[in-house]
Every structure is written in structure tokens, then in C-alpha cells.
Specification:
262 residues; Ribonuclease iii, N-terminal Endonuclease Domain, Chain A; Double Stranded RNA Binding Domain; 60% helix
Length: 262
């Protein structure tokens, strides 16, 4: 039976195998991971063969499945212990935020292994692929460490920094609610349903490095010819994120505008 190394070299080439080993070392030495795999053949290499790559296997899917369970345990234990004042609804709400694909994908980006996508010839990883990788990675460490839950929990707390994630939502007026949804509620409450928002998103930069920026206008009377407030969000690589950035800015503007017109 061929080893993983032999299979990888026959699928790709020797040079890419050396690059893969470099990424493994980089991952193991990351300040939040700081873990050396004892059995990389079984619990590390399959994790790197992310879903959608030529060598993605059943082992990746199994690890991803179990990683989801372990992460939910760690996250829910953290929330339950850290916030005794949270009721069931609040615990569920914040658990969903911390364990979201978007949040996991953000932590994948911090690992510094983005080159993996070009190495595997997959094209840029999607948010879901990145999140799946995080889940598989946590399970890989769990089994490789002989089911050391304490070790895995320690890595999760370093990598995800749950305190920052929770504080980020607590400090915002809309808390853990959907940003655009909160803004819509705010407009309805302050204008008795008359107010309207107008999102205008445009592309900037060359096609190979395309970004988006959103201008958001607000009319308390719901008329495009009568704009009361106008904001411009930050430049983002995705249209959705550009709109969310503008929506965040508009929330503060609408609340201040409401105080002035009361």
C-alpha cells in the first residue's frame, strides 16, 4: 500500500511535497497551535487535503464531522462557565456566532497557510472550505494527542480568542444581531416604517484584485430625492462585507440623527 507521500508525489510532484512539509511545519509552529503531530500520515496530511482537492478523502470528512462536535463542546463550555448570567437563548445565540463558518474562516486566514490553495490547484478556498479545515484540524489534534481534550481546549482558546469575539458583539449597539437586520429595525422604529435605505456598491481595482466599496443613503421620508444621511463603508474584498461595513456606520449616524431631530 502506497504511503501518503508516494500518493501525493504521484498526484502532484516532489517540489509540491516539499512545499506541503513547509506548510505543516508552519502550522505546527503557529503561536496559537504550537503542536507537533505524532502521526501526520493519519491526522495531519488528510486535514490539509481540504474538500475539493484531488486527494481529499473520507478521513477529512470524518475529522471534520468530529471536529464540529469537539468545537461545539469547547465553545459551549466556555460560554456556560464565563457568562453565568446568560440564559439559554443568549448561550445559543453566541454559540452560533462563534461557531459560524464566517468566524472559523477568519481564523483560518490567521494561520498563514493561504498558499495551500495554489499548492493543491483548487483556486481560492471558499468560506465553507476554510471552516471545514478548522473543524478537521481540531479533530486531528484531538485524536493525535490521544484524545487530550484539555490540550485541544487550550489550543481553541488561543486560536479563537473567544473573549474578543464576545466583547466585539457586546460593545456594538446591535450586539449579536444581524447588522443589516438591526439597521432595518432601527429605521422602522424611528420613522414608523417610512424611512428607506439605498445601497450603492461599486467595484474598484483591477479584475485580478477586485474590491468593493458601498455608499449607503438614508431618507427618513423614503424618497430618493430627499436624502438625510449618507455614509461610505470601508473597502472590502466581497460585496456583502462592503455593504455590512456601510450598514455599521449608518447605525451610528441614524441614532445620532434621531437624537438631533427629537
Amino acid at each position: 500500500m502506497k504511503s501518503f507521500k508516494e500518493k501525493f508525489i504521484s498526484t502532484y510532484n516532489l517540489e509540491k511535497w516539499e512545499e506541503l512539509l513547509f506548510l505543516v511545519k508552519k502550522l505546527e509552529n503557529h503561536e496559537s497551535i504550537n503542536y507537533k503531530f505524532k502521526n501526520p500520515e493519519k491526522y495531519c496530511f488528510p486535514v490539509l487535503m481540504i474538500r475539493g482537492s484531488s486527494m481529499s478523502s473520507n478521513q477529512f470528512e470524518r475529522l471534520e464531522y468530529f471536529g464540529d462536535i469537539v468545537l461545539k463542546m469547547v465553545i459551549n463550555q466556555y460560554l456556560f462557565t464565563k457568562f453565568p448570567e446568560f440564559n439559554e437563548g443568549k448561550l445559543t445565540e453566541y454559540s452560533a456566532i462563534i461557531s459560524s463558518n464566517q468566524n472559523f474562516a477568519g481564523h483560518f486566514d490567521k494561520l498563514g497557510i493561504a498558499k495551500l490553495s495554489s499548492l493543491l490547484d483548487t483556486g481560492d478556498f471558499s468560506t465553507k472550505q476554510k471552516a471545514d479545515f478548522i473543524e478537521a484540524l481540531i479533530a486531528g489534534i484531538f485524536f493525535d494527542s490521544n484524545n487530550d481534550y484539555v490540550k485541544v481546549k487550550e489550543i481553541c482558546l488561543k486560536l479563537f480568542n473567544y473573549d474578543d469575539t464576545v466583547n466585539k458583539f457586546e460593545l456594538k449597539p446591535w450586539g449579536s444581531k444581524n447588522t443589516k437586520g438591526y439597521l432595518n429595525e432601527l429605521i422602522i422604529n424611528k420613522t414608523s416604517g417610512k424611512g428607506k435605505l439605498y445601497y450603492k456598491t461599486r467595484k474598484i481595482g483591477p479584475q485580478n484584485a477586485l474590491n468593493f466599496i458601498c455608499t449607503l443613503e438614508y431618507s427618513s421620508q423614503g424618497q430618493v430625492s430627499q436624502i438625510d444621511l449618507k455614509v461610505e463603508g470601508e473597502v472590502k474584498s466581497k460585496k456583502k462585507d462592503a455593504e455590512l461595513s456601510a450598514a455599521e456606520k449608518m447605525i451610528y449616524e441614524v441614532e445620532e440623527y434621531g437624537k438631533k431631530t427629537q
